[in-house]
From TrEMBL:
Belongs to the enoyl-CoA hydratase/isomerase family. Pfam families: MaoC_dehydratas (PF01575). It comes from the Bacteria. InterPro entries: HotDog_dom_sf (IPR029069), MaoC-like_dom (IPR002539), MCH/BMMD (IPR052342). Residues 36-133 form the MaoC-like domain. This is MaoC family dehydratase. The lineage of its organism: Bacteria, Bacillati, Actinomycetota, Actinomycetes, Micrococcales.
Length: 163
C-alpha cells in the first residue's frame, strides 16, 4: 500500500505516526481499502472457532439470501480497526477500547473502503486520549460497519503535557 492522504479536513498522512499534538477533532483519514476473500473468511473461522454455516457453506448462505459467504464479525471488525495502526504508528501509547456496530453483511468478494475521523480528544498525564469514529462501506457505498475506538497517543518530547 502506498502512503495515503486524508479525505477532507486538514491534510494528514497515514503511516507517519501521529502524536497527540499532531491531531485535531475533525481530522479525517482515508484510503484504506481491502477486499474480503473466501480464504480470509476460512482462516478467520478457524482462528476464532466460528463454525456458523453462513461463513463456511455457500449453499447455506444462498438459502439465506446472500450471494456468497458472509465474513465473521471478528474478521470484519479486525479489518475495519486495523488502519488505526497506520494513523498512530510509533506514537501509539495504548489501544483502550472498541465499540463495534455491524450495519450490514460483509460478503466474500466485497471491497471495504475504511475512513477514520478524530471525534474527541482529551489530554491526560501520560498520554492523550484520542477517539476515532471509523466507517466501512462496501463497493455499493453501503455502510457495513461503524466503530468507535479510543486510543492513547504519546506526546511529543518536550511537550508540557508530556511531563
Amino acid at each position: 500500500m502506498s502512503e495515503q492522504t486524508a479525505l477532507a479536513g486538514s491534510e494528514k498522512k497515514l503511516l507517519a505516526g501521529h502524536y497527540y499534538e499532531d491531531l485535531s477533532v475533525g481530522d479525517k483519514f482515508g484510503g484504506y481499502v481491502v477486499t474480503v476473500t473466501e480464504g480470509m473468511i476460512s482462516a478467520a473461522c478457524g482462528l476464532f472457532l466460528d463454525i456458523a454455516a453462513l461463513h463456511r457453506d455457500k449453499e447455506a448462505a444462498r438459502e439465506a439470501g446472500f450471494d456468497s459467504l458472509i465474513a465473521p464479525g471478528t474478521l470484519t471488525a479486525g479489518l475495519v480497526i486495523a488502519p488505526i495502526a497506520l494513523v498512530a504508528g510509533d506514537a501509539s501509547a495504548t489501544h483502550l477500547e472498541d465499540h463495534v456496530k455491524f450495519r450490514g453483511p460483509v460478503l466474500a468478494g466485497d471491497t471495504l473502503d475504511v475512513t477514520l475521523e478524530v471525534t474527541r480528544m482529551e489530554p491526560k498525564s501520560n498520554f492523550g486520549l484520542v477517539e476515532f469514529t471509523i466507517h466501512a462501506v462496501n463497493g455499493e457505498r453501503r455502510l457495513v460497519a461503524e466503530v468507535v475506538t479510543l486510543m492513547g497517543h504519546k506526546y511529543k518530547a518536550g511537550t508540557p503535557s508530556a511531563t
